[in-house]
Specification:
This is Sulfate_transp domain-containing protein. The protein is mainly alpha-helical. The protein is 58% helix and 0% strand. The chain is flat and about 55 Å long.
């Protein structure tokens, strides 16, 4: 049985971005800021999104924990214990 190689073509269509638009779209952070400017930017971001949202970004479990059902929580705990028992001794 003979296997023929196929020529694959991959095409990407996207808008062209200049440096300013790219930085804005992907959130570039300047690294040469002094401490005062850096704190001002962080404070503006903190007040913009709110305290609770900042905490949720730091602890992702707070996003999904309120929406989990008791049966799913039980299954997740059992799975965590199983993984802990099997993987920790190998580590």
């Amino acid at each position: 049985m003979e296997i023929k190689e196929k020529e694959l073509i991959f095409s990407i269509k996207r808008t062209v971005l200049n440096q300013e638009k790219f930085d804005y779209q992907y959130g570039y952070i300047e690294t040469n800021l002094n401490l005062k400017e850096l704190m001002r930017k962080k404070l503006n971001k903190f007040t913009q999104y709110g305290f609770i949202d900042q905490i949720k970004q730091f602890f992702p479990i707070l996003f999904w924990l309120p929406n989990i059902t008791k049966s799913d929580l039980f299954k997740d705990i059992i799975a965590g214990i199983t993984v802990g028992i099997l993987c920790v001794p190998q580590g």
